[in-house]
Amino acid sequence: MYTVRKVTDDLYWIGANDHRLALFENIFPIPRGVSYNSYLLLDEKTVLFDSVDWSATKEFLKNIEDVLDGRPLDYMVVHHMEPDHGGAVEEVCLRYPEVKLISSEQAFEIMRQIGFKAIDNHEQIIVKEGDTFSFGAHTYAFVEAPMVHWPEVLLSYDLKDGVLMAADAFGTFGALDGKLFNDEVNFDRDWLDDARRYYTNIVGKYGPFVQDVLKKAATLDIKYICPLHGPVWRNDFGYIIEKYDKWSRYEPEEQGVMIAYASMYGNTEHAAQALATELCEKGMTNVVVHDVSNTHMSQLIADTFKYSHIVLASVTYNLEIYPVMKNFIMDLEALNVQNRTLGIIENGTWACTVGDRIEEFVNERLKMVDVLNDRVTLNTSLNEANANDMHSLADAIIESMKNIEETKAKAKK
Ligand code: FEO
What we know:
- There is one protein chain.
- By secondary structure, this protein is of the alpha/beta class.
- The chain has helices at 57-68, 83-86, 89-95, 105-114, 187-202, 207-217, 237-249, 267-281, 297-306, 323-334, 354-365, 384-412, and strands at residues 5-6, 11-13, 16-18, 23-24, 28-29, 34-36, 39-42, 46-49, 75-77, 100-103, 124-126, 132-134, 139-144, 154-158, 163-167, 224-227, 254-262, 287-291, 307-317, 320-321, 338-347, 367-371, 376-378.
- The chain has a 7-stranded mixed sheet with strand order 1-2-7-8-9-10-11. Strands 17, 18, 19, 20, 21, 22 and 23 form a 7-stranded mixed sheet that branches.
- Helix 5 (187-202) packs across helix 9 (297-306), helix 6 (207-217) runs antiparallel to helix 7 (237-249) and helix 8 (267-281) packs across helix 12 (384-412).
- The protein is elongated, with a radius of gyration of 24 Å.
- MU-OXO-diiron binds at residues 80, 82, 84-85, 149-150, 168, 228-229.
């Protein structure tokens, strides 16, 4: 059992790590790879929980065979049918003709849509919210978790050992490479950025649904959280649950500033750097600066969820928002981003309209985003004429941070 890890005495991680895939969902860069987690329970019955991406099926099938060690496979529980987990469901059916499938009604429908004909030779047990199923010593309770991350998603909870099978929830980019548990890695140092980028871009739109899951999870005595990607949590649950709670309520993790700039010849970039410098001079050093033209959208989104204040600095382009910046703010809308304070630096050599276009977009299409009045308008470059406006924007950002802290303190009282 060369790549298998034990989660509990009778539950095994039998997934696979993928360092070959460059773009997860063919859109998100994963330089640290990704793991496809699958688990196998050896009870009176043998139970497989989810499968893996088709590309990792060879290793996955070997792991199943090794752990079963000659026993038949009795059940396969499918929590989520996105192909990074459902890719090998049909192959399991073909290899284990007696296996019975347990899943949601919609997941079975998705299997048919994909074209998994072999599933129709197997008993299909549909479960829904509150149903339980006993495999011997272990009884699993099923929890519906629609839109975390697809509508058919189920979670399940082992009433004996407190294992929560969490589907995509609490998952992250990053290959495990032999490690399995959260306490075998330095999650805060090495994994949190990828966990944030994974959550915000993939599940970020569905915050209220994640809140529903967190409420359900709060009623359970959880000892292990087994997600479909990344480390298994067996302690320090408050750490990751607090992150999920903030992200799903669209509450910033930190008071800080993300300056995202769109610059053609360096003048808007210079203004963005000047604002960053002034904020740091004034004591607000929690500042990141991104060039939207060469920073992946998923990183811009992740940092938008992280920081309280966003400054968009953009050139005017065809009297409109520079295209890459426009893509970014459209993604903010698509992912339901809200509850942020926004500053604007606009630039135009003869007709500077971009600030108005951004403000219209934000006011019409984003929720609970306060646009600071202290807009900086550049006519080509930062100079003595607009330097004072830059001071005012930096002051307004710091002032609004103080106001937010005071409001929070009052609310606590
Ligand atoms: Fe990891 Fe929604 O699949």
